[in-house]
Design a protein that fits this description.
Number of strands: 11
Number of helices: 66
Helix content: 55-70%
Distance between the termini: 97 Å
Strand content: under 5%
């Protein structure tokens, strides 16, 4: 290209200025300094002969030069300095950049450059980097001559450019445009944002760096929020960051709400995965951004925005707290909780919030699992927070199983998505919990480890070295915990074997278990049994367990040889053989083995071949060991020869088989084990129930006919002693034989309980008839047992006879002291116990009987040794009509079998114990951390059942419980002596059954997890079960098919509410009312049903019940609370009580006794307490939105305060300590709620309703607080400790109320309406009393000085009272000589101070008139709560600010301060009390006596001065 060198041209000017331009991309060389070049160019253009045309000529030449791409590149790149000059200089700017700094050509050059950008559009080269380089030249210029022109040109270029160039220009705008043009740019960008979503990120990036006005910012933010739902996925991080960093305090709530509703992290992750899959499917390559997790970027943007400003952080936390429903919680909420937890200052608050939401069912287990599982990669940065939250939940999970499940979900999900480092941290955390010593934490941690094993066994196996370290601490675990721990280790050992790593874990477990089994101590032997059984389960379990208890045809083809040839089955068989060889002489350990094997077989988790092996080796020995013929002869021990008789046969006289119980207890040891080499122990009868349980379990698992092959055992008789000697058993038999008989009876009870367990599953009517008969036999045997226990002191079951103490195997079972030793309930079978450090004493029945106690053992204390009734037994409750038993007509004269009330009570009592144990209600605070002892029963199977499974089993029988309850109510209401079957009934027994059944329903409805969002199906099924009783088939079908929870709840409420007319006692009525209340709490509030509940409570309170004096106060309080709380207008009912019922009762009105028979002198306190509580509830629920207008709300508040005034006034006519305590305690709650809820409302509406607000305070609230002041004075005078302890807190609340009222008046410019003074000290009757407490002293007491009387509401003048009491005490003290000179010095200055005091007295009236609104600080602050130094300081301030002491008073005040200083010196006190005055000189003694006389005169004058001061009463001034 030829260079034009005409004068004034671009080339000529550059050359004259010292620059050599290259051609066709040759480098440009600058021969002079850049600043000199710029000055020369500007000078040449200005002084050119062409004049103004020179500028155009220069720019035209430049454009022509830049048309060549190579030249353009050279002009945009930094130029080089000439190397031929004597001095060199560094250059970093391009030619274009230097020319842009020349004002005369700047505007034209900028326009030319932007036009050049448009030229790339026409050439179709929009991907060229030249536009970005050109924009780079325009950034950060020192000066822009025509900013408006540049702004317009930029917006023009943006409007016609493609998206890629638009994005580059928009991002560069904040660095190009000066601040003066920001408004124009922002308007253009906001307009562009409304029309294009592709530029959203670039526009937000630019807006974040521009100065925005408030209205423009709000407009931009609103537009962004509108575009949020339609924004591109890649744009979301920038959008989130912009919204959170530009938000303001008044709009932060709206922004947070929009983000919560719009951001669905689960959908974002799914869309991103589908986008990647499509790119791979079409052969596209993933960009670097594609490999980044979009949720990670969004989460990072959230974190940055949340931490950007503190008010945003606080707003997020408050927003999460305020989420009301579980369905409203989303993944973003869980993520934000993790972000907030990472902030140190919020860590504790977030942990408390998470725990609270989990307990309330708002944060569900599924939500936590999904959040961590789906977004695990994004949350890796927050794994420390996840781990910390999990630890906290696990540590605080007591009484809340739902918290344990949530912590387990967090641990398990976090383990699956974490890397190796955090997996190790998780395992370490769980091991720390296991070693904590807390049973709750140990059980929960072991359950978490089990869940992790099931989900990620291979990953957990990498850390088995840490886990197996707990083998050294087995002594600190219970047997159930040891079982769970060995199951975990066994699963990891199986993973080793299957993966072929051949690790050492299996060898170490084998060594440990062998060592425990070979230990002669039975405790450690049980540990070995548990370990071996766990290994059997680990290696013999199916890979996919089927949760059914039925057998399959495939199991029949399994053979013993197959089990012994399989490598994994071989290990299981090895451990079973190990147990056989080590425990053949320990019946307790064998019984435990049979129970554990039976549980595994019934759970259907073992391989069929292993089940068949167990059947052949263990189960088949039952018949040969315990089943004998009626004619069989037994060889009994010489010392235990008793007559054998067969009892309780159901199979008729032709039956020949019998279960040998007493023969096994009494026969010779040589014959005891002849038929069973495995049971090589004389106390083999311990294994009777356990071995039968294993036998029936293997029969169900391996046979196709269930228990049909062994159903004869259900009617089989038992071999016992002769009944004819039962009445005189103590005189007929020796004590040792009596103990043996007791063991036999206990074993027989357990046998029938186990029979009922075995055959109750899907039992037919005939089988159920047998089970009911066996229940009758159990009751008969228990009565025999109670009779025998009276003659055998110190009785201990066989399981407890060989050990000194037994440790509870579950965390919830408590120990029970027995007369012959300490026995603790077990988790296995018939109470097989264990301890952590018991000595071994493997004695047998051949040992002489040792009686260690003469106390009689109660049968109920043997509950831990009874076989546990399984849930199937309770299906006997479905028997409502007699069952005809034709097959057994020859047995007795009875032709029909029905469930009588004694058997019903037996079942219901056991069921109630199970429900109470398994379904904890809301936690109850107990004094000093004491916890109620759990009932001592055997709940080993119940512990292993999950809560959800248990509830599902209970739901199967709830409808039958309801039916039974209705039948009992009908019988009691009609006062029948016979039931529907014609049987004579005991109404006391019926009432007991009724009470138990109601408690079962109440406990079930009180389950603290029933309201959880994940238990909706259980809630619905429970309500259906309560609603179907007494309905026709069509109605039952309609109810069962309904999915409307509220409708079903109303139906169940109405179905049970019918019972209210038939309730026999107050307690049962209160329980029914509570049941109805629990039903209503499961659904949203229904006004109709709530009103019915209130009417029911009113009827209960108006009924004259027999034995009403025995009604518990808490139950009465609950009924009154329901009457008021569920009423349509609770305040009107409270007003009726306060203004009508209670005054009439106190006035001995006989009509009130008829209308309210439950109201008496003993229950007056309960009524008062409930009224206070309900008043406080109404105040706490107060909101002006519930009223049509302000006047209605003010009338409501006035009625509340009027009721409060009347209640507080009852202390004048009823001064019982209980009434006063209730008044102080609950008045404080009322005032706190009033301050929080009502005073802000009154402050808002004060100016428009001054008279109403003034009336509320002056005529209602002020008299009430005065009554409370009188109660406080009475408490101090009476020295009642229980009342005095409440005085400080109630006075503090009253002072807070005063200050809040003052603040409200000052806010509304009505401060002059507020006056505060000293209250008169009055007793409960309102009579004035002295403010001084009597002080016991050897000296003659001074006359009491009453406090000043003022009419304004204010706490008593405690400051004045304390000062006077202190003065009296100090007068009794003898001053020491060391202080005499100081007193003289203080007296020397008395004249000066007297003059000052005189001036103060003259001006005191003027000061009082000028300061009408001052408040006596000494009447507001209690000196009893202050140190003496603070008291001195306060007194000094009062003297300067207030008034009004005469000369002697001022002088005496200083002397008293000096004496107070002296008293604080213990050495001076000792000297004063030691009598050293006798050794002082006579002149000093005379001076001391004179000083004492002056002191007494000064004290008297000071008292007069203070009385004068306090008599200056400030009067109220009208507004």
């Amino acid at each position: 290209m030829a260079m034009v060198s005409a004068p004034g041209s671009f080339y000529a000017i550059c050359q004259q200025a010292g620059m050599s331009l290259g051609i066709n991309g040759d480098p440009i060389v600058l021969n002079v300094e850049p600043t000199r070049f710029q000055r020369e160019v500007a000078r040449l253009i200005r002084h050119s002969p062409l004049g103004a045309d020179c500028t155009e000529s220069f720019l035209e030449g430049l454009q022509e030069y830049l048309e060549d791409a190579q030249n353009l590149k050279a002009c945009l790149m930094p130029i080089a300095g000439s190397s031929h000059q004597g001095s060199s200089f560094a250059l970093s700017e391009s030619l274009i950049r230097m020319l842009l700094s020349i004002d005369i050509i700047q505007s034209g050059l900028m326009e030319a450059l932007l036009d050049r950008i448009l030229g790339y559009l026409n050439e179709g080269d929009s991907d060229s980097p030249a536009p970005k380089i050109i924009l780079q030249q325009l950034k950060w210029l020192n000066n822009i001559n025509e900013p408006a022109k540049l702004t317009a040109k930029l917006l023009e270029v943006i409007s016609i450019s493609p998206v890629s160039i638009q994005r580059d220009i928009i991002v560069a705008l904040p660095e190009i445009v000066p601040d003066s043009e920001h408004k124009t740019i922002v308007d253009g960008l906001v307009e562009l944002m409304e029309s294009s979503t592709e530029l959203l990120v670039a526009i937000l990036d630019a807006l974040s760096n521009l100065n925005l006005q408030a209205d423009i910012l709000i407009n931009a933010r609103n537009n962004v929020m509108d575009k949020l739902e339609s924004a591109e996925l890649d744009d979301l991080p920038v959008v989130i960051k912009f919204l959170l960093q530009t938000v303001e305090l008044d709009t932060v709530g709206d922004v947070i709400g929009t983000l919560r509703q719009t951001l669905d992290f689960k959908s974002i992750s799914r869309l991103q995965r589908s986008s990647k899959s499509m790119k791979k499917a079409f052969g596209g390559s993933l960009t670097s951004n594609d490999h980044l997790s979009l949720p990670t970027l969004n989460l990072d943007a959230l974190k940055t925005g949340i931490r950007f400003q503190k008010f945003v952080t606080d707003a997020w936390f408050k927003a999460l707290v305020a989420i009301p429903k579980a369905s409203d919680h989303k993944a973003i909420d869980v993520m934000v909780l993790f972000i907030l937890h990472s902030i140190v200052s919020l860590k504790k608050k977030v942990e408390v919030l998470i725990r609270k939401k989990i307990i309330e069912g708002l944060l569900t287990k599924k939500l936590l699992e999904d959040t961590i599982s789906v977004h695990g990669v994004s949350l890796r940065e927050y794994m420390p927070s996840v781990l910390s939250i999990s630890e906290n939940l696990l540590r605080s999970s007591a009484n809340h199983p739902i918290v344990i499940r949530a912590a387990s979900s967090l641990y398990t999900s976090a383990f699956q998505v974490s890397d190796a480092y955090y997996r190790q941290e998780i395992v370490g955390s769980l091991l720390v919990h296991i070693g904590s010593g807390s049973n709750t934490e140990i059980d929960a941690s072991l359950a978490v480890l089990q869940n992790i094993v099931d989900a990620s066994r291979a990953a957990l196996n990498e850390f088995n070295g840490f886990i197996k370290g707990l083998l050294d601490y087995l002594d600190n675990m219970s047997l159930e915990q040891i079982r769970l721990f060995f199951i975990v280790l066994g699963s990891l050992a199986r993973e080793d074997e299957e993966s072929g790593t051949s690790g050492t874990l299996l060898n170490e477990l084998n060594i440990t278990i062998r060592k425990q089994l070979s230990n002669p101590t039975e405790t450690y032997k049980k540990v070995g049994v548990m370990g071996a059984i766990a290994m059997v389960q680990a290696f013999g379990a199916k890979e996919i367990a089927v949760n059914s208890r039925g057998g399959s045809s495939s199991q029949a083809s399994a053979s013993r040889n197959q089990a012994e040839s399989d490598p994994l089955m071989k290990i299981s068989i090895l451990y079973l053989t190990m147990i056989k060889s080590s425990c053949h002489k320990s019946a307790t350990c064998l019984s435990m083995t049979y129970d554990e094997l039976a549980n595994m077989v019934m759970s259907n988790i073992l391989e069929p071949m292993l089940v068949l092996w167990i059947k052949e080796e263990f189960s088949d020995q039952f018949a040969g060991t315990f089943v004998g013929e009626d004619t069989e002869q037994f060889v009994l021990r010489p010392d235990r020869r008793i007559g054998i008789e067969h009892w309780l046969n159901l199979d008729g006289p032709d039956a020949m088989l019998s279960i040998s119980i007493m023969p096994k207890l009494c026969e010779e040891s040589s014959n005891a084990v002849s038929d069973s080499p495995l049971l090589d122990t004389p106390d083999a009868v311990i294994c009777l129930c356990s071995l039968f349980k294993l036998m029936q379990a293997t029969e169900k698992a391996t046979g196709e006919n269930g228990l049909d092959d062994i159903d004869g055992v259900l009617g089989c008789s038992i071999s016992m002693f002769k009944r004819e000697y039962l009445a005189d058993i103590g005189s007929v038999y020796s004590m040792e034989i009596c103990h043996t008989i007791g063991q036999g009876l206990l074993c027989a009870v357990n046998w029938f309980r186990e029979l009922s367990n075995a055959f109750s599953d899907n039992a037919s009517d005939q089988t159920m008839a047998r089970i009911i008969l066996r229940l009758k036999h159990i009751l008969e045997l228990e009565d025999m047992m109670r009779h025998v226990l009276k003659v055998i002191p110190g009785f201990k079951p066989l399981e407890a006879s060989n050990i000194k103490a037994k440790d509870a195997s579950t965390r919830n079972m408590a120990s029970s002291s027995f007369t012959g030793g300490v026995a603790i309930q077990s988790s296995h079978g018939k109470g097989k116990g264990f301890t952590r450090g018991m000595h071994d004493d493997s004695s047998s029945l051949s040992r002489p009987l040792m009686i260690t106690s003469n106390e009689t053992v109660a049968y109920e204390s043997l509950a831990p040794y009874l076989r546990e009734l399984e849930m199937g037994v309770f299906h006997a409750l479905r028997v409502h009509a007699p069952i005809t038993r034709d097959a057994y007509s020859g047995v007795t004269d009875q032709e029909k079998v029905h469930l009588c009330y004694p058997e019903l009570r037996y079942l219901l009592t056991d069921l109630l114990a199970k429900v109470t144990f398994k379904l904890p209600g809301p936690p109850v605070m107990t004094l000093f951390g004491k916890k109620a002892a759990a009932p001592v029963v055997n709940n080993s199977l119940l512990i292993r059942m999950s809560t959800i499974e248990f509830v599902k089993e209970i739901l199967k029988i709830v409808s039958h419980i309801v039916t039974k309850t209705r039948m009992m109510l009908t019988l009691l209401y009609n006062d029948d002596t016979t039931d529907v079957n014609g049987e004579v009934v005991n109404q006391v027994t019926v009432q007991e059954c009724l009470s138990i059944s109601l408690k079962i329903l109440l406990t079930l409805l009180s389950w603290n997890e029933l309201k959880g969002s994940d238990q909706k199906e259980l809630r619905l099924n429970l309500l259906k079960a309560l609603a179907v009783d007494g309905k026709s088939e069509d109605e039952v079908k309609e109810i069962e098919g309904s999915i409307n929870l509220s409708a079903v709840a109303v139906e169940s409420f109405k179905n049970l509410a019918i019972w209210r007319q038939m309730m026999p006692t107050f307690e049962s009525s209160a329980t029914l009312l509570e049941i109805l209340d629990k039903i209503l709490s499961l659904v949203p509030r229904n006004p109709d049903t709530s009103h019915e509940a209130s009417e029911f409570a009113t009827r209960v309170l108006s009924e004259r019940w027999s034995g009403s004096n025995a009604v518990k106060n808490d139950r009465l309080a609950y009924v009154i609370g329901q009457q008021i709380g569920k009423a349509a207008t609770p305040l009107a009912l409270i007003d009726e009580y306060v203004t009508g019922v209670l005054p009439s009762f106190l006035g001995d009105d006989d009509g009130i006794a008829l209308l309210h028979p439950m109201l008496s002198q003993s229950t007056f306190t309960t009524y008062t307490k409930v009224l206070y509580i309900q008043l406080a509830v109404l105040v706490g629920e107060f909101t002006d939105d519930d009223f049509q207008d302000t006047e209605a709300a003010l009338q409501h508040v006035m009625k509340l305060t009027q009721c409060f005034q009347d209640l507080a006034g009852y202390v004048k006519s009823n001064d019982k300590r209980d009434v006063l305590g209730v008044t102080l305690r609950h008045s404080k709650t009322f005032m706190e709620q009033f301050i929080k809820r009502v005073i802000p409302f009154l402050g808002v509406h004060f100016k428009g309703h001054q008279d109403a607000v003034a009336k509320i305070f002056r005529h209602h609230l002020q008299p009430a607080t005065r009554s409370l002041q009188n109660v406080c004075g009475h408490a101090k005078a009476s020295k009642e400790q229980s009342l005095m302890s409440m005085v400080p807190s109630i006075k503090k609340t009253m002072e807070l109320l005063i200050f809040q009222v003052k603040l409200m008046l000052e806010t509304n410019d009505a401060r002059v309406a507020f006056w505060v003074g000293n209250l008169k000290h009055r007793n409960l009757a309102g009579e004035e009393i002295s403010s001084q407490l009597p002080i016991e002293s050897e000296d003659e007491p001074e006359p009491e000085v009453q406090a000043s009387d003022e009419d304004d509401d204010m706490p008593e003048d405690r400051n004045s009272k304390c000062k006077k009491v202190d003065r009296k005490k100090k007068k009794a003290r003898v001053p020491t000589p060391s202080t005499t000179n100081k007193r003289k010095k203080s007296g020397a200055s008395s004249s000066t101070k007297s003059a000052a005091a005189g001036k103060k007295r003259k001006s005191s009236k003027t000061v009082q008139e000028e300061d009408d609104e001052r408040i006596h600080t000494k009447s507001q602050i209690s000196n009893s709560d202050m140190s003496e130094d603070e008291q001195d300081q306060l007194e000094g301030e009062e003297q300067e600010v207030e008034d009004v002491y005469d000369d002697h008073a001022i002088e005496e005040q200083e002397e008293r301060a000096e004496r107070r200083r002296r008293v604080r010196n213990p050495y001076i006190d000792d000297a004063a009390m030691s009598g050293d005055d006798e050794e002082e000189e006579d002149d000093e003694e005379e001076e001391e006596e004179e000083e004492e006389e002056e002191e007494e005169v000064g004290d008297d004058e000071e008292d007069e001065a203070m009385e004068d001061e306090e008599d200056e009463v400030m009067e109220d001034e009208d507004e």
